[in-house]
Amino acid sequence: MISIKNSHVLFVVSLVLNCMFMLVVLYGRRMGPVVYKQSHQLEKDVVFLQRNALSLVVDKPFTSEPAAMESSNNTRVNIITSSSKPTTRAASTNSCDEVNHFAFVKVHKAGSDTLAVMFQRFGDERNLSFVLPVHVWDLHWPNNLREKDYLPLKTDEFNILTYHCLYNKTIFRKLLPEKTKYITILREPYSQFKSTFNYFNIAHKMKERNVSNLAVENNFGLFLSDPDKYMKMMKIVYLPNFMAFDLGFRRDDRNDVQKVINFLQEIENDFTLVMIMEHFDESLIMLKRLFCWPLESILYISKNVRVYNHGVGKPNTTDPVDQKNMALHRSWSQIDYVMYDHFNRTFWKEVALEKRFAEEVVFYKSLNDDISAHCLKTPKLLFHVNASEWNEAFDVPMEICQRMKQTVLRYIKKLKDDYFALPNATIASPQNNNKASILLDDMEKKYQQKQKL
In angstroms, what CA-CA distances link 54 with 224, 275, 283, 346? Predict the structure, then answer.
């Protein structure tokens, strides 16, 4: 857990950081392009110092070598397979109570659609109450949730919130029961940014709006050469530290180390689990264990997987141009990198406390692949899963396959239909919902037209 250990040290570190930023700015203005390499290195040093400043308040210090932070695969393997690590939680969930109250704070372009469908299916199969958007599919994002943004409660309490909504602790605590658990997911920041840039088609929009006269494939690098300038020209406000933004971080606080620390501390304290997209299946097994869910509840078919537009591409560690762009993005979105590094490491520390975790992950991956292939090819046949040490016996009928294949939009439509079928609807009507359905149909057609892998 994060804890403040030495406020005087933090004050000194913060003061040093501010002075270093001022030196970068003043020296850069005076010397211009001649000092690009020196100022860029100083910015990288500031990023590294910020990370080490955060090590004053987290349970495990950051490494003293920046390069070692970029890849910890060997460490992860050792954590999973080591028999000398202490274990506190058993693989079986027979002795615990299933969690039916949770909020999933969606982070853009981090596998959140796949999870949202899974969570919708979980609640649908148990007839749980959702915080459903009045409009098509979000809860007033990118602004804070308001009462008029969701359909009124028609049961004793809300069980699940799983749609795009800025995390605000005060608002969420007023809306959801005290027993609600909070979860989210993070993605490697440069990959998340590239996917966002691709999804919102920013390179083409730069050309269309005469922001750039370069070929479309060159606009990604152009944007990162001066992101604040082009973001302002494009009237986009949420791209820097986009994941932190979704989790409630104020953009104006990005250069304040103490506020970054406070933000990380709040996420650490508020969230039961921060999943990692690069370890999606491992994250789901952790969720299963923490929430005491049956294995069939975490089955999924990947959603919203896209090809990248030309000129963006997936991160390429062998391409010097792409590595330069990554360095530019890191200096612009430092909080996302700090947050990802911290919670990735925290996740693997939690894995180290689990019994036979790797064995269950291997079993689950194989089973989920088989069931996904079955549902996509022959869903009319019943898929039977025998009992194992990881699960009780269960069947996957055609109805479950159909639910697994749903998009978020279609599942919202289904849940809203169920909502309006209940007595005491206090706003809207099935007729008004039909108007929303026509809009949803149009969005769905556009959604299906986009290329997928």
Answer: 26, 21, 24, 14
Is 46:21 a contact under the CB 8 Å cutoff?
yes
Largest CA distance in the chain: 72
Q: Specify the 3-state DSSP secondary structure of 306.
A: coil
176's tokens: 């959801």
What average pLDDT does the chain have?
78
Token reading at 260? 């970054």
Mode of pairing for the β-strands spanning 394-396 and 383-385: antiparallel
pLDDT tens-digit series, residues 264-283: 999 999 999 999 999 999 99
What DSSP character marks residue 165? Answer: -
Residue 49 pLDDT > 70: no
What angle (nearest 5°) sits at the alpha carbon of residue 73, between those of residues 71 and 79? 130
pLDDT of 374 reads 94
Query: Residue 276: which of 378, 189, 203, 213 has the closest Cα?
Result: 189
The model's pTM? 0.75
